Amino acid sequence: MTELFDKWSQNDPKKLARKTDPGTSHIAAVNVSQGGKLSAQRRAMLKCVIENPDLTAAEMELLDGVGRGVPSRRLIELVRAGLIEVSGKRPSKTNGNVMQTYRVVKGVTI
Fold first, then answer.
1. CA-to-CA distance for 53 and 108, rounded, in angstroms?
2. pTM listed for this prediction
3. Please, is 19 exposed, middle or buried when counting C-beta atoms within 10 Å of its C-beta (0-12, 13-18, 19+)?
4. SS3 call for 79
5. How far is CA 19 from its chain centroid?
6. Which of 2, 28, 47, 62 is at 20 to 30 A from 69, Cα to Cα?
7. SS3 82
8. Is the domain defined by 2-104 classed in CATH 1.25.10?
9. Helices (H) and strands (E) in the chain, counts
10. How many other β-carbons are positioned within 10 Å of the β-carbon of residue 15?
11. What would the pLDDT profile of 30-53 be if each residue is shown by its tens digit?
12. pLDDT tens digit sequence for 5-33
């Protein structure tokens, strides 16, 4: 699993921002992909989902060490990579909005 995660986590900044996004998004994509920050955020979110299954992205933002906006960006990437899955939908305890919840795919570890 670690080899798969390491290979997958080496992303091209061009894939993190759409062509139609403003210039600030492209700058942010370069910044997050350099120096291992992107990989570290993905690992942190995977660990968060393993330790706290069935939370919404908004609920994960309230946990220590999880930055604002990070879950919303990284959870979809982890779903696309096949490491986590959507486990359901329910009102978030933070704002009452119906949101997706996430859990790790069986057999995935850090």
1. 13
2. 0.74
3. exposed
4. helix
5. 21
6. 2
7. coil
8. no
9. 5, 3
10. 10
11. 656 666 788 888 889 999 999 999
12. 555 555 665 566 667 878 776 676 665 66
